[in-house]
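This part of the workshop introduces the protein records we will be handling. A record pairs a protein's sequence with a compact description of its fold. As an example, a complete record with its sequence and its structure tokens follows.

_____
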Amino acid sequence: MARRNTRRAGALAVSFILAGCAVGPDYKKPQTWSPAQWQKAATQERSSALSVPTELEPDVQWWAVFHDPELTSLEQRLAAQNLDVLRASEQLAVSRGQLLLAGAERFPDLAASGSYSRVQHSSRQLQRIVERIGSKSPGLIPDSAAVGDATIPLLNNWQDGVQASWEVDLWGRVRRQYEAAKSYTDASMEERRGILIARQAELASDYMALRSLQEQLRITTENRDAAAKLLQLSQSRYKSGLVSELDVDSAQSELQRTNAIIPQYEQRIAMQINAINLLMGAPPGGLNAELVQTAGIPLVPPAVPIGLPSELAHRRPDIREAEAELHAATAEVGQAIADFYPKVTIDAGFGLQSFSFRDMGMWSSRMWNVGPSITIPIFQGGRLTGQLQMKKASQKAAALQYRKTVLNAWREVDNALTAYQAEQKKNQRLVEQVAADRRAMVLAQSQYRSGLQNYLQVLDAQRRVLSSQTSLAESTANISDDLVRLYNALGGGWETTFPQVQPKHT
């Protein structure tokens, strides 16, 4: 019974040694702070704003809320065409290659080899060998002096075999190394996802800016046509002697001032299209056929689904990236601790060796070796200690970076919600201002035709209309852009998987 227990204890001990133990701290997922609900400004009654964020689950393709086919088409093609995203994909491939390298150390290293050499042995060495063997077996070995005088012929040395080497991961050094590499690969994956989301938001913002400029150009063109009609009216009244030449000159000046604004908008529109071309990996002019057609500014929906506050840490790729880097730094601490322990390696080999190629197939030509080797760090000049201190400090820095990333995420979300609500309130006031300015301009023009008002009043009313209409167009685009920024802050889009590559648009 005692012998059986001894055997069982020995088997358990061997199993423990073979399985090994991973030294160092185990990674624990950090607790993420989140508020119970979104800020109050985001949950006001719908009557206080045009669009209200809700806690419904957002669509992965968040840009679909704008119901703009061109924007949707661009966003769906972005992942396959944007150069930053494509470069991030290659960087991810590099990380995956490094993961393969780290994972390879978990398995035995097996290699086959073969060699041939022409060898001239030392006669002096052979004489010493004969002397030692002859002293133990006198009479069986010829005189060593005769051997020393003999000429050793050139010999052929044929050898082939298989060699294997495997590190017994007693302290978890290899496992910690693989754990760190896996976490760095996860961080690289999240970095690519973060770049994609940022470029999607940048594309949407540039698209909103383009449509805003096109709308402002349309407004300016309409005001130019109105100024041209007023110029004709002033010229007609001047010919009739109802007004002075000052009215004609003022109307002419206003028309030319409005005309001078149009080339500026055309330039900015061309530059905005080029910015979209660059995001889509296209040369200047590559998407002009799609984008030069004037379209309205995409409007926000009455209700905007943004999900629950507790889901932010799962949606933001920068938070997940920081968490993966913290995991990797924790694993590297364990790897640095394992370097203080002995390193055990099992080496084995089997092969054939002969002075004649014809004998290589004979079993008597075999040779083999098997056995462990151990390396014990005795003195490293403080290298291992310094490395451990460095890894511990890196872990603390990664933990602080994670906390900062989470706080920054909430700052961006809070700012985006505030901006989204504030811009809508501003837009409501601008709608009222435009309506009032239009009524004032119609009244001023009517009084001018009746001779009850001078042209300066008409000119002032016309300029106010152009200014308020332009401000309203900018504000409308800003609302849509603020929603884009909100979704970008929420980490919306492709939360768990990378989008399938869409074919290039033709």
